Amino acid sequence: TLKALARIWPCYKGNVTFNGEDIKKFSHREFAQKLAILTQAPQSPADLTVKDLVEMGRFPHRNWFDRKSMEDDAHVEWAL
């Protein structure tokens, strides 16, 4: 299931790979940089836009206190 792919549930049988690599070998940050999942529940706040959600996908690519960069903007625009 998607939850096994996202490492939310353990994979009890076999292996889950991403680009040929076992997903268990990635650090949390590396894994977050490769895969983002937006579930359907619970619902997002009403004032949150699709662009806001896509921008959240850039968090793993920055340091904790870094501000949004022009590179982040370019990636978001490409994704949209």
- The string of secondary-structure elements, in order, is HEEHHH
Placed side by side, the strands forming the largest sheet appear as 1-2
Low-confidence stretches: none
Q: What spatial form do the alpha-carbon principal axes imply?
A: globular
**What value does the average pLDDT take?**
86
For the record, give the distance between the C-alpha atoms at the N and C termini, rounded to a whole number: 26 Å
- Percent of residues in helices: 25-40%
Number of helices: 4
Strand content: 5-15%
- Helix/strand-derived category reads mainly alpha
Sketch the major β-sheet.
2 strands, antiparallel
Q: How many discrete structural domains?
A: 2
Using only CA atoms, what is the Rg? Answer: 15 Å
The overall strand count is 2
